[in-house]
Amino acid sequence: MEIPEPTKIICLGKEFNSEEERREYFRNELRAKLPELKKIEGFPIGEDEDIINLSDPPYYTACPNPWLNDFIAEWEQEKESIPGRQKDFHVDEPYASDVSEGKYDPMYLYHPYLTKVPHKAILKFILHYTQPGDVVFDGFAGTGMTGVAARCCGSLDFQSRFKIEEEFKNLSIKQPEWGTRKSICSDLSPLASFIAFNYNSKIDLENFDLTAKRILKLLKDKCLWMYETSHSNGGKGIINYTLWSDVFICPSCNSEIIFWENAVNKEEGKVLDSFNCPHCNYETNKKELSPAVITYYDEILGKSTSEDKSVPVLINYSYGGKRFQKKPDKSDLINYEKVQSFKSENWLPIIRMPEGDESRRNDKKGITHVHQFYSKRNLITLSTLKSLIDEPIYNVLITKVAFQTTKLYRFTYQSGVWGAGGGPLSGTLYIPSLIKEINILNQFEDAVNGRKKIAPPKLNSDVINSLQSATSLQNIKSDSVDYIFTDPPFGSNLMYSELNFLAESWLKILTNNKSEAIENKSQNKTVLEYQDLMTNCFKEYYRILKPSKWMTVEFSNTSAAIWNSIQTALQRAGFIIANVAGLDKQKTSFKAVTSPTAVKQDLVISCYKPTLSFENNFKSQQGEVATWDFVREHLNHLPAHIKKDNSTTAIVERSPKILFDRLITFYLMRGLPVPIDAKDFQEGLKQRFVERDGMYFTGEQAAEYDEKKAKAPQFVQLSLIVTNESDAIEWLKDRLRKQAQKYQDIMPDFRIATQSLRKGDTLPELQDILNENFIQESDGRWRTPDPNEAKDREALRTKVLLKEFNGYVTAISQPRAKKLKEVRVEALRAGFKNCWEQKDFKTIVTLGDMIPQNILLEDEQLLMYYDIAKDRV
Question: For residue 589, what pLDDT is reported?
Answer without folding.
Answer: 37
